[in-house]
Amino acid sequence: QVQLLESGGGLVQAGGSLRLSCAASGLTFGEYDMGWFRQAPGWEREFVAATSFSGGATVYAESVKTRFTMSRDNGRNLVFLEMNSLKAADTAVYFCAAASAFNAGYYYDITRYQYWGQGTQVTVSS
Asked: Of 42, 4, 48, 37, whose CA–CA distance to 23 is shortest?
């Protein structure tokens, strides 16, 4: 049974930082591209960042690319999202997701991702 468990969300003031973590179990972690998505109330879920199965490639949404950093630790089945210079517009539930690296496609394509965590709330006060 595959499980993705996010942690690290919370309430932070604008300009502050948070570090999200996602612990994966029940899958061969090194065979999955990993992504972070977010969903704000009344909005569709959107792509934030993704990294390849090896961590050799990482892509970001334009809105976060100078402020967020995604990384992974294949030895511990973990992915991270370091978020700096947070804005009120970053307020959302953040989801970790896994896509098999054997299924080619774009990192930002939400339909590629087979497994999803429950999400962690990030609230940025202005």
From this structure: 4
pLDDT of the residue at 104: 85
Residues 52-76, mean pLDDT to the nearest whole number: 97
Mean pLDDT of the chain: 97
Alpha-carbon separation of residue 10 from 1, 7, 110 (angstroms): 28, 9, 24
Backbone angles phi, psi at 49, to 5 degrees: -160, 160
Q: Exposed, middle or buried by CB within 10 Å (0-12, 13-18, 19+), for 1?
A: exposed
Say if residue 18 is exposed, middle or buried (CB neighbours under 10 Å; 0-12, 13-18, 19+): buried
Measured CA to CA, the distance from residue 90 to residue 110 in angstroms comes to 19
Residues 102-116 pLDDT 10s: 988 999 999 999 999
Residue 40 CA, distance from chain mean position: 14
Looking at the DSSP bridge assignments, the partners of residue 41 are none
